[in-house]
Structures are given as structure tokens and as C-alpha cells.
Design goal:
Layout: H1 2-21, H2 37-46, H3 59-67, H4 72-108, H5 113-118, H6 120-138, H7 142-167, H8 174-197, H9 202-262, H10 266-269, E1 272-275, E2 280-281, E3 289-290, E4 297-300
Antiparallel strand pairs: 1-4, 2-3
Helix pairs in contact: 2-3, 3-4, 4-6, 6-7, 8-9
GO molecular function, one term: calcium:sodium antiporter activity
Membrane topology: Multi-pass membrane protein
Transmembrane segments: 71-94, 144-165, 177-195, 201-226
Length: 302
């Protein structure tokens, strides 16, 4: 027991010496090693790592100085309530103001939905992550950047996607979905490789930005070829329908000529051509073919 007490005394003495000599080298987590509320409050007020650069209120001071150890549970409840309020506020602002503005810009520029989704709307959805990452850089906390971004990506691909799938059934185009998943996996692997190297250089940052630019280029090129193929199919279908309609009209004309030539009393025959809309005409070559009003010819006797 005496050895343990001696070790604790030495540790506390070392902490006090560090506070007096180099307070900027201490981490704010050491506040939990102190025993009294007064010591914790003084520690958070004198250590640079516990500093707060916000504009609303110093939440570290609120927990360790205003509430203290006696009301620690109350302070945590208050902090979780504030965090929930900030998340809801951020979502309302993005949903009511940012995303509609970006959607209007996309429609004004006549951007297709998939291109607008990977550019303007992606920026709108990632705006909170951008600001939190900038905050992490200004506070010299790189672990906040990577953990926040990767955690947000996991949350979106699990909770958000799962919630959307529970809302109902819908069809998703296979090739665009596989393209997005492939780029997402590739970008995540690049981030993992950079972290594994433990050093980030300018070439790494340029490579990550280049991956996103390449992704946008693939989306644009893919849509171009998709529209080109779709127009070619529609043109072939239109030519096929025109050829079929011309053949049907020729068969009808031949049938009219045969009926009139076979009957000498043309007045008694009283050929009456009645143009009807949206009817079905049966021929030797095709059955149940919908014709246009000017093509639908029916013979009747008076």
C-alpha cells in the first residue's frame, strides 16, 4: 500500500510540475485523474488542450466548474440534449434551405438527376462533415477528422440505407449502383492506405481529389453513352413501327379493291369507310394492332 501511495504522490507531483512548466503539453483527459472538483476546475482552466474556441459557451467549464462532480449526471444529460438540438437544427437547415437551393441551381443549369446528385446535392449532404473537418484542423485534432468522416460514411451506408429500404419497395439501376459502390470502396481503401503509412503528403491529397473528379467524369460519360444508346433504340423501334403500319395499310387497300371488284352493283354495295378511334383491326399478318385514327378503316354495307 505504501508503494502504491508513493507512486500516486510521484505521479501527482509530476503532473503539477508539468502544469507549472509546460501546460500546453498536457492532455485534457488527465483531468479525470484528479480527486476534487476544485482541482478539476483549475486544471481545465489552465490547460491549453481543454481550451474552447466557440462563441456560445465553454461546455468544459460547465461540466467541471459549474456543475462539478456532485451533478455530473445532470451535466451529461444537458450536453446530450444540446447535442441532439444541434443535430436537429443542422438537419432542418440543410433540408429546408441548403438542399432546395442546390436543387434549384441544378434545375437552372439543366443538370440530370444523377450528375446533380454527385455534385451539388452531395455537397449539401456533406456540408456538416466539411465544417466539422475544418474545426478539427483548426484545433489540431486529426483523429477527429478521420474518425468523423469514416463514422459518418458507415452511418449513412448502414442506418440511413437500412431505414430507406424499410420504407417500401423500389427499383434501383444495377450498373450505376455498382459504379458508386466501387468508387466508394476505392476511396476508403486509399484513406486506409494513407493512415497505414502514418504520413500524409501533398500527393495523397491530390490523389483523393482526383478520385472524386474521375468519379464525376465517369458519371458524365456513362450518361452520355446511355442517352446515345437509348436514342438509337427508339429510332429503330420507330422505323419498325412505321414499316409495320405501311404494310397493314397496303393489306387493307388490297382487301378494299378485292371487295369492290367482286361486286358489280357498287351502289348496292355502298362502300362506307368509317374512321373510328382506338379500335382493333384484324389482318392476315397481324392481330390486335392499335392503329391511328386515319389508319383505322372498317367496311360496312348499307
Amino acid at each position: 500500500m505504501n508503494s502504491i501511495k508513493g507512486a500516486l504522490i510521484v505521479t501527482m507531483s509530476s503532473i503539477i510540475e508539468l502544469i507549472m512548466d509546460e501546460p500546453s503539453q498536457l492532455k485534457c483527459l488527465l483531468v479525470n485523474t484528479l480527486n476534487t472538483s476544485t482541482a478539476k476546475c483549475n486544471f481545465t482552466q489552465n490547460i491549453a488542450d481543454c481550451g474552447y474556441d466557440g462563441i456560445i459557451y465553454d461546455f468544459t467549464r460547465m461540466v467541471y466548474c459549474d456543475f462539478g462532480d456532485q451533478y455530473r449526471a445532470v451535466s451529461l444529460v444537458v450536453l446530450f440534449g444540446i447535442l441532439l438540438f444541434l443535430f436537429l437544427s443542422m438537419g432542418v437547415v440543410a433540408d429546408e434551405f441548403l438542399c432546395p437551393a442546390l436543387l434549384t441551381i441544378s434545375k437552372t443549369l439543366r443538370l440530370p438527376d444523377n450528375i446533380a446528385g454527385v455534385t451539388f446535392l452531395a455537397f449539401g449532404n456533406g456540408a456538416p462533415d466539411i465544417f466539422s473537418s475544418i474545426s478539427g484542423v483548426t484545433q489540431s485534432k486529426p483523429q477527429l477528422i478521420f474518425s468523423g468522416l469514416l463514422g459518418a460514411g458507415i452511418f449513412v451506408t448502414t442506418v440511413v440505407v437500412g431505414s430507406v429500404l424499410l420504407t417500401g419497395q423500389f427499383e434501383v439501376m444495377q450498373r450505376p449502383l455498382m459504379r458508386d459502390i466501387a468508387f466508394y470502396i476505392g476511396a476508403t481503401f486509399m484513406v486506409w492506405f494513407i493512415i497505414w503509412k502514418t504520413r500524409i503528403y501533398l500527393k495523397h491529397a491530390i490523389a483523393l481529389v482526383a478520385v472524386y473528379v474521375c468519379y464525376i467524369g465517369v458519371v458524365i460519360i456513362g450518361r452520355y453513352f446511355y442517352l446515345k444508346t437509348k436514342k438509337a433504340k427508339e429510332a429503330n423501334k420507330h422505323e419498325t413501327d412505321s414499316t409495320t403500319d405501311s404494310t397493314d395499310i397496303s393489306v387493307i387497300s388490297d382487301s378494299i379493291d378485292d371487295r369492290t371488284d367482286g361486286d358489280n352493283d357498287t351502289e348496292a354495295f355502298g362502300t362506307n369507310i368509317d374512321f373510328k378511334r382506338k379500335k382493333t383491326l384484324t389482318t392476315k399478318r397481324q392481330r390486335s394492332k392499335d392503329l391511328e385514327p386515319e389508319q383505322d378503316v372498317v367496311l360496312t354495307r348499307e
